[in-house]
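Entry details:
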Amino acid sequence: METRIFPTKEEMGKAAAAQAAGGLNRAIAARGRAHAIAATGASQFDFLDALARVGGVDWARVAFFHLDEYVGLPDTHPASFRRYLRERIVERVHPGEFHFIQGDAADAQAECRRVGELLTRQTIDVAFVGIGENGHLAFNDPPADFETEEPYLVVRLDEACRRQQLGEGWFTDLEDVPARAISMSIRQILKSGEILVVVPEVRKAPAVRDCMQLPVSPMRPSSILRTHPRATLFLDARSASLLSHGAGDR
C-alpha cells in the first residue's frame, strides 16, 4: 500500500483529488463511464472541495454509490450523509447518477438489498474512503466482518464511533447519535479497482499507526486495505505523526 504524506491537509486534498480525477478519466476513456464510491465525514472536506474544483472530468459520465448512512435519520438532518453528499458532490459537479442509501427507509434490510443490487451490477473503478478514529472502514466498526459477501449490511455503531460523530459536531448529544447504520461491507469495498484512503488530522494518528503497522485484523478494520493491490493512503503531517520513521512515501 503506497503512503503519501503532505505538510498540510489542503495539499493532501489536492493531491488525492488529482489522483481521483485521473482514475475516473481512465475509466471513462476505457468504457465511456466511471463508477465511484464516495465517503463522508469531516476528514473528507478538503479532498471533496479539491475534487469539485479539479477540472477535466466529464461528470455526466460518472455514477456514484453511497458508502454508508445512519438508520432512521431523515435527509434533512444536518448529520445526514445524503445531505452531505448532495451539498459537496451532487450540487457542485452534477454527476450523471448518484445512488443514495435511504437510511430512513421503513425496512433497513430491504434497503440493503435494493442498493446492493444496483451496486453489484457495476464494476467500481475508484473508491474514496477514510479511516475512523476507532479504525473503522465505512461504518464497519471493530470487530468487522471480513467474510460476508453481502454488499451492504445493517451494523451497530460502537461508542467510539458515535463519540467521533459527536466530536465532529454533527450531533449535540451522544444520545442523539443513531446506534445503527447501513454500511458497505469490507469485501465489497475491496472489490474496487482503486482505493483512495484520505485521512487528515491528528485525532486519526493512533488509528493510522495501528492500522498500518500492526497485523491485519478485524479489530483494526482499515488494516485490510493493506491487502489491496491499488490502495493509496493520503496523510497530512499530523495524521502521519505516529508512524515509524521512514514509513510511507512523500
Observations:
- Residues 25 and 31 are 10 Å apart (CA to CA).
